[in-house]
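Example is below:
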Amino acid sequence: MKILIAGIAAAGLMAAQTADQQTNNKQDRQMTAQIRKALMQDSALSTNAHNIKIITQGGMVTLKGIVNSDNEKKVVESKAADVAGGVAKVDDELTVK
């Protein structure tokens, strides 16, 4: 059963992630912190981009929130993918304002 659920989650067929679903797993917390640090260090990003929600579960990252442009959305996703180990590990649910 556990394998089936993991397979469904990996396929993106489970419900959308919310911030309260961030795991307490040390590696997930570290990945979230590294992504947040990368975003905060980029002064070209808007306050909206700095304040997006980053949810990491089992090495998979979900990004939620509002950014100011398509370009900013790409930059945020790219920074998250760099930390997570590839774009396949990032679920971009960002909305352009």
